[in-house]
Design brief:
Elements: H1 2-37, H2 49-59, H3 68-79, E1 84-85, E2 88-89, E3 96-97, E4 104-105, H4 106-113, H5 117-130, E5 137-141, H6 147-153, E6 160-165, H7 168-180, E7 186-190, H8 195-203, E8 208-213, H9 219-230, E9 233-242, H10 248-259, E10 266-268, E11 272-276, E12 285-287
Parallel strand pairs: 5-6, 5-8, 6-7, 8-9, 10-12
Antiparallel strand pairs: 1-4, 2-3, 9-11, 10-11
Helix pairs in contact: 2-5, 3-4, 5-6, 8-9, 9-10
Amino acid sequence: MQKKLYLCSGFSRSVIRMMKLSTAIYRALSWLRHQLTARNTGGHGIHSPYLFEWVRMVLHDENVYYAWEKIEEVRTRMLADEREVEFVDYGSGGKRKSENGDGRKVCDIAKWSLAKKKYAQMMARLVNWLGTSKSLNIVELGTSLGVTTVYLAAVDSRNKVVTCEGCPAVAAIAKENWKALGLSNIECVVGEITVDSLQLTVDSLRRIDVAFIDANHTYAGTRVYFNVLAEKMHEKSVMIVDDIHYNEEMERAWREICEDERVTSTMDLYQMGLVFFDKNYWRKNYKIRL
């Protein structure tokens, strides 16, 4: 009996390795397709004058903001944090604890879940661009350790950021980071991001100006999140969908978002996609290398 269990365990590990290899190959091919078809335009080829200026001032702006150095210090600290926490993952469509059963190190969570600096800073520039004359309501799905949340919140203390995180232990560390930086304009909703819980969050807001989806990397989850959030998006809102080429499910969800009748222009940056709702824009999906 023990031998059979051993063989079964060995078979399972082999299947997992094959699945991981298959996923790696899929992502490599997806990245290559993007590189071959995307353009580094600097704004040229963008038909809408507003989007042309947006690409120049948000995607390709190289100015450094005063708060970024302190935020990156938090990232560095998280990448070196050896604490273990009980990790609950809803991001693949179901509740899963970490594989070793004993928890997961904060540094490992940081390595795999934090948005890269260039994308986080791009989102900060986006918030700055949209909020020049008004405060913004920002919704983030998938707080992780709260670094990207800080980039969204630190631009303007008048902005309200509502962020949702499934894992209580991870949310607690994120709150520590926000407190250390003196941020008070962040509200964290802890627990699985279901249709009902997200609907409650959305209903509490008059409008949503910026939404960032970085949770539940499945077709069904992404489509549900998009549909609920889109109810409160207006023509000047921008939605950001992370990991749009993460797997076949996410690519399918992204294609359908691009084709949604409420959406006009979209931008595929490979790592993430940007969704615009302004009816004055040309209906087109731009592929851009950032």
